[in-house]
Amino acid sequence: MVTEILVWLGTAFVWVAVALRFVFRGTKRDQRAVDCALVFGAVSLLLSKRTFGSALEDVVGPAQRSNLSNSLTLFAVGFILVLVVVWRHGDDAPRWIESVAVGGVAVFCMALFVISADLPENTPIHEGSDAASAAYLSFYSVPLLVLAFYGAWVAATASRRGEFVGTRRWTVAAVFGFAVLLGVGTVAVLAAAFHELVSGSDAVAAVQTDAGPDYRVLVVAAGAAIAISPVVRGGARRWAARRHMRRLRPMWRDLTSVAPEVVLRLRRRDRVSVDALYALHRMCVEIRDAVTVVGGHLPDGRLPEGPAEQARVLAAAVRAHARGEEPVHTADLSGYDVLSPEAELHLLVAIADHWPALAVAEPPATPVSAAGAARAP
Fold this sequence. Notes:
Blueprint: H1 2-23, H2 29-48, H3 50-60, H4 62-89, H5 97-115, H6 130-161, H7 167-198, H8 213-258, H9 268-271, H10 276-294, H11 307-322, H12 334-337, H13 341-353, H14 370-373
């Protein structure tokens, strides 16, 4: 009972991953490969389940239902292999790898149908002869082993060379773990099947030649977890970007009201498609440009130390510029220019947190920019 619940939870998780990948689908080669592999794997899980596969089994028989489920799994393996190749070689990955991977998988799928063609009607594959069951399992396992060994080799060499850092390092570790899981499980099933065949036992029938639904759920769910990790990280970055924009908006609004020339104007139809990360970047750029415009009203033309004092003198500069006063200094923000994007964002947010308490007068309406278009909820 517990195992059945876990299997259903794993299947549900895979379909949630499919939905998330569909909503946030990409257009790059590796992203398309991930999407295709996840869809094939998810449908394969449904067909391997008695609840969903029984209707198909009534039409084509148990052997062909297993063939279809296993073929979908192999096509998922083919697209994961494409993903690993593209991941390993980047833009230098051969353009024909998709055709070769899918074509090679198709050959193995046809072999599965040929091996099971002599089975009596309504006979499951594992109830055929031991030799046929072993041959079927062998053809099914070859693509899985190729993916497992190649994926583990790519992940291991990438980690050894130090090619990936930060979150990419965890991706490498996850891919290596997935490859090991796939390889160990496949070898274990093969070893059990051939041991029974050599011993002359009839127990090969006990080895499920469709790789075992429970094990398949585990492998596909592990792959789905890797597939949605970029989506989850991207969603977290966008949520953080919207949160930063809410904190920056009062200061951005006041600064751009006195320096509207720094605002990037967008066409109306482009505003709805503005990404939060891009909008945050534009907001920081516009704030920085507006600070340069009003910088002549800063003491000595420079920002002092400390975010509270920086917010105070910057608000005073905004008021002076709004009153039309002549600049008394030449803006000097040379220290500000060397900041990294992350350090710049941290500085601006720290200043913006002190901004509402300064009660800068409500400015007139400003032109719609990329930053203003992507308003946080």
